[in-house]
Design brief:
The termini are far apart. Strand 10 and strand 11 form a beta hairpin. This protein folds into two domains: 348 residues, no CATH class; 155 residues, no CATH class. The strands form four sheets. The chain has a five-stranded mixed β-sheet with strand order 8-6-9-11-10, covered by helices on one side. It has a two-stranded antiparallel sheet with strand order 1-7. Strands 2-5 form a two-stranded antiparallel ribbon. The protein has 21 helices and eleven strands. The chain is an alpha+beta fold.
C-alpha cells in the first residue's frame, strides 16, 4: 500500500494543473510558430538574389531555360539540344522544370528549386525526428541551421532536394514496419525509384536511413543482435534494388563523358582536406561565423549528453557513424564527379539530428526561451547569407553589362583571373568559399540565356544532364568544364585540347574576377582588344586576323 503523501505527490506529477497545461500549450504554439518562421525565412535570400553565388547554380538555371524552350530557338538550336535519353539519375529538377517551365519563367523557377533545396533537408529531418520520438520538439528548430552547407553553396540542388525527400520517405518506415511484407517492399521500391531519379546520393541516403530504422531504436543483447543486423541488411537490399536496375539497364551512367584517366579515383587524405570535408555540414562563406553560430545551435545537444538526458535512436546513430566513416574514406572525385567525400558528413549530420532528442528538464518557459534562442541563431545566419547574396549581385550586373553587346550566335571563351600573391581577404565576401574555391566558375553560361551566345562550360555530361552540344560546337566544349585561368593559354602545351584553336573559333574572351590584380597581360595576347571593362567582368574582342 502506498503512503498517502506519495500518492498525492505522484498525482501532482501525472495530472498537471490547468495553469501548467496552459503554459505548456503556449510553449508548444511558440515552438510551432518559430519553426514555421525559420523555414519561411529560408525563402528570403533567393528573393534578394536572382542569381546567388552558388557554384553550379548558373548551370542549372541555364539548363532549365534551354529545356523549357530556349534550345528550340535559333541560333541556339544549332548549338544545344535537349536529350532526355542521356541521363536517368540526378535529373529531378530537370523533369520537374520541364513540366513547370511551361507556366513559370526560368529565373523564378530556379529560385523555387533553391528554396526546395534549402527547406526539404531540415523539414525532412524534423519529420523523421517526430516520427521516431513522437511530437514536435524545440530541438527541431535548430535543424534549420543546417539548411546552409558547403554543398548547398556548391549549388547541388538535386542533391539537397534528394536528401530532404529521402528523410521524408524514411518517415513512413515506422508505419511500414507493421504492414505486410509485400506492401513494405513495394513502398520502398517506389520511394527508392523516385529518389534515384532525383539524385543517386538521395537513394544512398535513403538506404542508410531505412537500415538504421530497421536496426531499431535501442541496442539489443547479443542474442538479438544477429536478427537486428539481418533486418537492417534486408531493408538496405530492398531499398537499393532500383540502383541495381539502373546499373544493368541504363545506356549512360554518370561518368560516361570522361576517359579512363578521368574515371580514376582521386583521393585527398591531407589533414587540411579532411578538416574541410568534416566541416561541410556548416561551412559556407566565412568559416569563423559558421563555427560560432554552430556552437550555439549544438549547445543543447552537448548539455543533454553531459547530463545524461539525451534520447537517441541507436540505429540512426549507427547509420550516422557509418556515413561519417565514409566521409573519411571516400575519394574526392570519381567518374568525373567531384566533392564525393564532402557529401557524406552532411548526410551523417542529418541522420544524427533525426536520431537525437535532448530531454532537458526545463519548464514551458524554458523551452520557449531555448526555442527562441535557436530560432534567433537560425535567423541571424539566414540574414547573413542573404546579405552575402545581395552583395554579389553587383557581379551579376557587371557580367550582364559586359556581354550586352555580344551578338547572337557568337562564341565566348570565359577565363578566370587568379592573381598570384593576392590575399583572399582582398576579394569581396561571397566570391569564394571558406576554403578558397571560387563561386563564380559557372557565371559565364548566363550569356547563353542573355545573348543566345555559345559558352563552352555548360554542363552536358552523358548520364548526368539531359543536354547535348551539337557538332561542330562540341569540338570546343568539354561536358563538365571549369573556368580556365587565363595563364593556361600562354603555351599550347598548357592549353586543354578543346581550346587549342581558340583564336580561330572564338570571337570574344570574357575575363571574370578582373577587379583584383592586373588581369590579362596585353603584351602576351596582342590579338585581344578590350571592348568592355565592368570591373568584375571584362570583355575582349578577338582580332579577326587571327581567325582566318
Amino acid at each position: 500500500m502506498q503512503h498517502p503523501a506519495q500518492t498525492s505527490q505522484q498525482r501532482e506529477v501525472i495530472v498537471p494543473s490547468p495553469a501548467a497545461t496552459r503554459s505548456a500549450d503556449i510553449g508548444g504554439r511558440w515552438i510551432a510558430w518559430l519553426m514555421a518562421g525559420c523555414l519561411a525565412a529560408l525563402a528570403l535570400p533567393p528573393l534578394l538574389a536572382s542569381v546567388p553565388p552558388l557554384l553550379d547554380y548558373p548551370n542549372h538555371l541555364v539548363r532549365l531555360w534551354l529545356i523549357t524552350g530556349g534550345a528550340s530557338h535559333a541560333p541556339l538550336s544549332q548549338m544545344y539540344a535537349v536529350s532526355w535519353g542521356s541521363a536517368h539519375t540526378n535529373v529531378g529538377i530537370d523533369y520537374l522544370g520541364a513540366l513547370l517551365g511551361r507556366v513559370v519563367p526560368a529565373v523564378p523557377l530556379g529560385s523555387g528549386f533553391i528554396v526546395l533545396a534549402l527547406v526539404l533537408p531540415p523539414l525532412g529531418a524534423a519529420a523523421l525526428n517526430r516520427a521516431v520520438f513522437g511530437g514536435a520538439h524545440w530541438w527541431q528548430i535548430g535543424f534549420v541551421y543546417f539548411a546552409w552547407s558547403a554543398t548547398l553553396i556548391g549549388g547541388f540542388l538535386n542533391f539537397h532536394i534528394g536528401l530532404g525527400s529521402a528523410l521524408l520517405g524514411a518517415t513512413l518506415e515506422p508505419r511500414l514496419a507493421a504492414s505486410a511484407p509485400q506492401l513494405r517492399a513495394g513502398a520502398r521500391f517506389v520511394i527508392a525509384t523516385v529518389l534515384l531519379l532525383v539524385h543517386v546520393f538521395a537513394l544512398a541516403f535513403y538506404c542508410a536511413l531505412v537500415t538504421g530504422i530497421a536496426f531499431g531504436r535501442d541496442l539489443p543483447g547479443w542474442r538479438r543482435l544477429g536478427t537486428r543486423i539481418g533486418n537492417a541488411l534486408l531493408a538496405a537490399v530492398m531499398a537499393s534494388a532500383p540502383m541495381l536496375l539502373l546499373v544493368v539497364m541504363a545506356p549512360h551512367l554518370p561518368g560516361a563523358h570522361v576517359d579512363e584517366a578521368g574515371n580514376a579515383l582521386l583521393w585527398d587524405f591531407s589533414a587540411l582536406g579532411k578538416m574541410y570535408v568534416l566541416l561541410s555540414p556548416i561551412a559556407t562563406y566565412a568559416l569563423k561565423v559558421d563555427l560560432v553560430l554552430a556552437a550555439v545551435i549544438l549547445a543543447p545537444l552537448v548539455w543533454a549528453f553531459c547530463t545524461q538526458c539525451l534520447k537517441v535512436h541507436a540505429g540512426l546513430l549507427l547509420s550516422a557513424g557509418g556515413l561519417l566513416v565514409l566521409s573519411l574514406a571516400a575519394p574526392t572525385a570519381v567518374a568525373g564527379t567531384w566533392w564525393i567525400d564532402n557529401r557524406f558528413p552532411i548526410m551523417a549530420v542529418l541522420a544524427l539530428l533525426a536520431g537525437t532528442r535532448p530531454g532537458l528538464a526545463v519548464s514551458a518557459t524554458g523551452r520557449t526561451l531555448i526555442a527562441a534562442t535557436l530560432a534567433g541563431v537560425v535567423m541571424v545566419r539566414t540574414g547573413w547569407i542573404g546579405y552575402v547574396w545581395h552583395e554579389r549581385q553587383s557581379d551579376i550586373l557587371a557580367l550582364h553589362r559586359a556581354v550586352a553587346t555580344v551578338p547572337a550566335g557568337a562564341a565566348i571563351l570565359p577565363l578566370d583571373n587568379v592573381p598570384s600573391g593576392v590575399d583572399g581577404s582582398n576579394f569581396p565576401i561571397g566570391r569564394y568559399f571558406h576554403n578558397g574555391h571560387p563561386t563564380h566558375w559557372s557565371l559565364p553560361v548566363l550569356a547563353i540565356m542573355w545573348q543566345k551566345a555559345f559558352v563552352p562550360n555548360l554542363f552536358w555530361a552523358a548520364g548526368k544532364q539531359p543536354l547535348r552540344v551539337l557538332p561542330p560546337w562540341n569540338e570546343i566544349s568539354f561536358p563538365e568544364d571549369g573556368l580556365l585561368p587565363w595563364e593556361a593559354l600562354l603555351e599550347t602545351s598548357r592549353t586543354p585540347a578543346h581550346f587549342v584553336n581558340w583564336r580561330a573559333r572564338y570571337q570574344y574572351v570574357l575575363l571574370l574576377n578582373a577587379d583584383v590584380g592586373k588581369g590579362i597581360d596585353s603584351a602576351a595576347f596582342p590579338e585581344l582588344q578590350l571592348a568592355r571593362d565592368e570591373g568584375f567582368a571584362r570583355l575582349y574582342v578577338v582580332s579577326s586576323v587571327t581567325r582566318r
